[in-house]
């Protein structure tokens, strides 16, 4: 191993430790969850289109308001993911790619963005009615030292009735997903042209 490789190997745990301490949603210890009940048939195309973020577990990469995601099919069959938010008065967006990794589990997608440390991260649709709301969960293990949990309540509109939000939270809880730190996403006063 060259001196440069040794230095990179040495710095990685320090960098990961720093990242762990700064990132919301991170938990010390390896993943204990290996499966989750999901539902989705993306071949129908019903999940595609625009979704607004109603609530989420805090994420370092999402700090703005008016957060939305738009999903469409590319010519190569992958799913184009276009996420946007308003942060400090400016539109911020990123494009990614989602793929179905196992055709027998079409609700368990993997998503990659240009800034991601890992090539693909899980994007599991736990529940959706396609027309009103969707519940999404993601958990990524980092060297079995710690993991990141993310969860989102999405809607086709910029708001959901409180009882629908509570039912969504109950579904996460019943799936043994800790949402005690879940926060609402600011969707009021958003430009409809975003």
Automatic annotation (TrEMBL):
GO terms for molecular function: lipid binding. It is found in: Secreted. It comes from the Eukaryota. GO terms for biological process: brain development; lipid metabolic process; lipid transport; response to reactive oxygen species; tissue regeneration. Residues 47-187 form the Lipocalin/cytosolic fatty-acid binding domain. One of its GO terms (cellular component) is cytoplasm. Keywords: Disulfide bond, Glycoprotein, Lipid-binding, Lipoprotein, Pyrrolidone carboxylic acid, Secreted, Signal, Transport. Belongs to the calycin superfamily. Lipocalin family. This is Apolipoprotein D. It comes from Scleropages formosus. The lineage of its organism: Eukaryota, Metazoa, Chordata, Craniata, Vertebrata.
């Amino acid at each position: 191993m060259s001196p440069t490789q040794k230095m990179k190997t040495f710095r990685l745990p320090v960098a990961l430790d720093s990242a762990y301490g700064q990132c919301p949603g991170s938990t010390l210890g390896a993943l204990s969850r290996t499966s989750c009940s999901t539902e989705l048939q993306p071949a129908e195309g019903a999940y595609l289109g625009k979704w607004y973020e109603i609530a989420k577990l805090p994420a370092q990469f999402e700090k703005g308001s008016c957060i939305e995601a738009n999903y469409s099919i590319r010519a190569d069959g992958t799913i184009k993911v276009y996420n946007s938010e308003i942060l400090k008065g400016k539109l911020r967006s990123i494009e990614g790619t989602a793929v179905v990794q196992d055709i027998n589990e079409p609700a368990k997608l993997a998503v990659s963005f240009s800034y991601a440390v890992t090539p693909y991260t899980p994007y599991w649709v736990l529940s959706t009615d396609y027309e009103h709301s969707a519940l999404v969960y993601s958990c990524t293990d980092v060297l079995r030292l710690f993991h990141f949990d993310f969860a989102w309540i999405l809607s086709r509109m910029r708001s959901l009735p409180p009882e629908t939000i509570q039912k969504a939270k109950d579904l996460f809880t019943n799936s043994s997903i800790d949402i005690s730190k879940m926060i609402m996403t600011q969707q009021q006063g958003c430009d409809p042209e975003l």
